[in-house]
Structure formats: C-alpha cells, structure tokens
C-alpha cells in the first residue's frame, strides 16, 4: 500500500518528469534510453557503485575457483554483463560467456576486455535473463548476476534459467539492490520514486525483495548477506550479496 503523502510526492515527481513520460508515450524514449542514455548513465553510476562495492565483490568472488569443473576448467556465464565491470574479479583462465539484453555497451565493454586479458571470452549473446535458450542445460560452472535482477521482467523465470544452465554443484553469485525496511524513510522514498525511476532507468524496480525469490528458487545451499551501499542522491542503499549452489 502506498500512503497518501507518498502518492502526492510521486505525482509531483511525475509532473517534473512529464517530458520523459510524453516521449515514452510517443515511443521515442525507450529506444533513446536503450541506445544512448542508459549505457551513458550506467557507466557514470557504475563507476561510483564499483568503488563502493569493490571490497564486497572481492570477498564475494574469492571462492570462485572452488567451483571449477572436474576437468579443472571454470566456465562462467554472466547475465547482464553491461560494460564488463566484474571481469577484474574473475580468476585467470576463466572461460566467460557474456549475455545482455542491451547490445549498446560495446565501447566500455571493449575497454574492460582489453584491461582483463587474463580471461578467455567465449561468446557474446544478446539475451534476456529469462530466456537463455542458446546456452545448453548444465553447461556452466558459475553464473554471475550483479545489479540485473532489479530490471528483469520475471525474477523467478530468470532464476529457473540460472538453475537450468548450471551443472549440479555449480554456483550462482549475486549482488543486487533491494527494497528497504518497510517502516523506514528509505522505503518511503523508494515508493515515491518508483514509477519515474523505473521509466528513466530502463525498467529498474526499487522495491523488489529479491532474497525471497532466492529462498523460493530451490538452491541446495544459499548464503545471503544484507549490506548497505549508499549511492548519493539515489533511493538505492540496501543490497544483498551472496551465492547459491545448485
């Protein structure tokens, strides 16, 4: 339920962002957002987020090599690779398949690939997390997903695909922003910003309680940690980080 004061402020925000709503209605905003605005803004926000999340990512990805297949290979698939800011955390010789629904990150992606030549880049697929049909079942050791589950159409379908492509004993690593505590001011502001934020930032939802989806997804083992990563002037702060084993 959204309270009256949140609704009022939400309406004010919609009025402020009215030109974008109008462009969206005319069918102009989405293609512009996908091709120009979102890759640009994600690069800027991503740089700040990467600095703040670095120690958490170093800790998170520390045991990646434990999930090598019996042959000694580590086949990793990343959902929503974007500009490739996670490449630096992957172990040497790791075979990476990159997937993203948006193919407009080439410039920053190429830059990060050049920086991280310790990896083997196997495939680049334009694919949504909910539909990884180009990837055979049980064919990867690790799936990685950071700041992506907020904007997929269906979290449960995405997690089903994750479990399908993972080999038994493989692992799913995640770091995602989530809904704040319902009684908090942070949650109040998430409610206020929700529709306008979702429109401007390519479907990003502020109030998903992703830990619940992960608990329902039937991993044999699941480690979830709630952390705080404040991004200045945004309603994003509460995050979850961890991994699940198939």
UniProtKB/TrEMBL annotation:
Transmembrane segments: 7-29
Phylogenetic classification of the source organism: Eukaryota, Metazoa, Chordata, Craniata, Vertebrata
Underlying gene: Mettl7a
Organism of derivation: Mionectes macconnelli
Domain called Methyltransferase type: residue spans: 77-174
CDD domains per the UniProt record, alphabetical: AdoMet_MTases
Keyword Flavoprotein (UniProt): no
Record's protein name: MET7A protein
PANTHER family reported in the protein's UniProt record: METHYLTRANSFERASE LIKE 7A, METHYLTRANSFERASE LIKE 7B
Pfam hit, one: Methyltransf_11
Entry keyword set: Membrane, Transmembrane, Transmembrane helix
GO molecular function: S-adenosylmethionine-dependent methyltransferase activity
């Amino acid at each position: 339920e959204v309270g009256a004061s949140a609704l009022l402020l939400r309406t004010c925000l919609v009025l402020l962002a009215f030109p974008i709503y109008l462009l969206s209605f005319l069918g102009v905003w989405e293609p512009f957002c996908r091709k120009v605005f979102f890759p640009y803004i994600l690069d800027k926000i991503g740089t700040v987020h990467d600095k703040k999340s670095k120690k958490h990512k170093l800790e998170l990805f520390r045991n990646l090599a434990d999930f090598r297949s019996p042959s000694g290979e580590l086949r990793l698939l990343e959902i929503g690779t974007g500009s490739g800011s996670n490449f630096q955390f992957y172990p040497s010789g790791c075979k990476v398949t990159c997937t993203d629904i948006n193919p407009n990150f080439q410039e920053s992606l190429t830059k990060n690939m050049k920086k991280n030549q310790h990896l083997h880049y196997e495939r680049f697929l334009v694919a949504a997390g909910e539909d990884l049909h180009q990837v055979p079942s049980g064919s990867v050791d690790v799936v990685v997903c950071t700041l992506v589950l907020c904007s997929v159409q269906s979290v449960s379908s995405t997690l089903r695909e994750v479990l399908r492509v993972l080999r038994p004993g493989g692992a799913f690593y995640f770091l995602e922003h989530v809904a704040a505590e319902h009684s908090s001011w942070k949650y109040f502001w998430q409610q206020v910003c929700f529709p306008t934020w979702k429109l401007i930032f390519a479907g990003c939802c502020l109030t998903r309680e992703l830990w619940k989806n992960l608990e329902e997804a039937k991993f044999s083992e699941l480690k979830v940690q709630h952390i705080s990563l404040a991004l200045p002037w945004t309603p994003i702060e509460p995050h979850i980080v961890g991994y699940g084993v198939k």
